[in-house]
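Appendix C: a fully annotated inverse folding record. The material below is reproduced so that readers can follow the format used throughout the book. The structure is listed first as tokens, followed by the designed sequence.
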């Protein structure tokens, strides 16, 4: 399957940079041997995670809450009773998760390749190394700090093409009774909701219990629990340990049975997904064109990474969407990748409500719709496209 030529999802750019914009072929595939859903062409990582990386985790209040609860879960279930535990987080961003461990006085270390977001964490007193995580970095951490009780990663593992080096590094970094806990957008949800916008350059993999258990088994790690999460439009938390150190919960076998029943191992399921994506694209395009023909104003809400796949795959440019409103300063005043729709501060949305807001940040729908009661009261309506294209108030 192909989504065509794509720019980088977080490659917000100035008008001067348009001529040199980087493109690659966004072609997802499923491996019939290990069931890993993945993209074939992977842009060089330094083009994606650099000192101007536009993604800051702490922009959402709900996500802050989610990470408080995630940290609480780890402290209660894993760290309780351990003396002077050591927590490592891969891709710790601006410290949205680790700040909870700092507050509780736990030894911690964040690994974050993008210098600007790592600086934001350091400013909050969170120990952060600016580097990618691999087996060598794991050895350095063990030498300097000792083995970890728990290694965490949230919305990070799916970004790392060299899964084997990370798996090997995590296995070496953990104490014999240590835990590796990570969460990422879940393949089962993506297929049921036709949320194809989870597929973009940074998401090399969309995991399932089938693919995670296989990938980590190769490195002596065992999937011992799974917990569905509502974040990012449907995610899964995976709990792994060194093989034989704990007994797996029945949740794992149940989820794997469910995945087989859903056909996550079958090519037919993905051919249906492809068709569903094409239908979604046609409906969204038609809806926007009809509204434009009625001279309605449409503004995008949230310059998400996901929106880059939607705008480019569906051919949505500024003749359909006037601008995209976003609260992240580094994105404002720039153009969206590929589609070149201007990104404006949230204040521009409030100053002159459009007739319709296209909800690109649909994963935050509950938070946003609660916050935007005035927009609806002023006669505004939402255009959503996950799980299906519709206009809602
Ligand atoms: P995010 O949820 O991280 O999605 P992705 O992983 O696809 O980038 O991004 C949310 C974006 O939406 C981020 O740029 C901030 C923006 N945003 C708003 O502008 N207003 C809001 O109320 C919320 C919740 C997010």
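Designed amino acids, in order:
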């Amino acid at each position: 399957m192909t989504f065509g030529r794509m720019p980088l999802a977080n490659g917000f750019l100035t008008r001067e940079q348009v001529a040199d914009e980087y493109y690659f072929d966004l072609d997802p595939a499923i491996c019939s041997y290990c069931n890993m859903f993945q993209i074939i062409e992977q842009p060089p990582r330094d083009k994606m995670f650099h000192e101007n990386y536009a993604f800051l985790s702490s922009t959402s209040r709900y996500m802050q809450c989610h990470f408080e609860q995630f940290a609480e879960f780890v402290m209660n279930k894993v760290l309780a009773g351990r003396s002077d535990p050591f927590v490592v987080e891969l891709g710790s961003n601006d410290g949205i998760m680790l700040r909870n461990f700092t507050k509780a006085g736990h030894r911690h270390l964040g690994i974050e390749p993008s210098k600007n977001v790592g600086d934001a964490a350091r400013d909050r007193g969170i120990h952060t190394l600016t580097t990618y995580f691999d087996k060598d970095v794991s050895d350095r951490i063990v030498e300097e700090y000792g083995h970890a009780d728990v290694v965490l990663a949230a919305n990070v593992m799916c970004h790392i093409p060299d899964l084997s080096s990370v798996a090997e590094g995590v296995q070496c970094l953990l104490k014999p009774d240590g835990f590796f806990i990570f969460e990422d957008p879940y393949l089962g949800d993506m297929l049921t909701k036709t949320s194809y916008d989870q597929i973009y350059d940074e998401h090399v993999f969309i995991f399932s219990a089938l693919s995670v258990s296989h990938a980590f088994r190769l490195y002596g790690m065992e999937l011992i629990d799974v917990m569905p999460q509502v974040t990012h439009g449907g995610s899964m938390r995976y709990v792994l340990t060194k093989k034989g150190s704990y007994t797996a919960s029945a949740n794992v076998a149940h989820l794997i049975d469910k995945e087989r029943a859903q056909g996550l191992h079958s090519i037919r399921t993905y051919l249906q997904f492809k068709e569903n994506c094409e239908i979604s694209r046609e409906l969204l395009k038609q809806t926007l064109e009809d509204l434009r023909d009625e001279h309605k104003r449409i503004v995008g809400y949230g310059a998400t990474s996901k929106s880059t796949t939607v705008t480019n795959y569906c051919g949505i440019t500024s003749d359909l969407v006037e601008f995209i409103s976003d609260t992240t300063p580094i994105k404002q005043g720039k153009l969206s990748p590929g589609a070149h729709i201007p990104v404006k501060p949230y204040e521009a949305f409030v100053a002159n409500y459009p007739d319709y807001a296209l909800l690109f940040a649909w994963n935050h729908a509950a938070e946003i719709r609660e916050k935007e009661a005035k927009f609806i009261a002023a006669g505004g309506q939402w255009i959503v496209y996950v799980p299906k294209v519709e206009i809602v108030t």
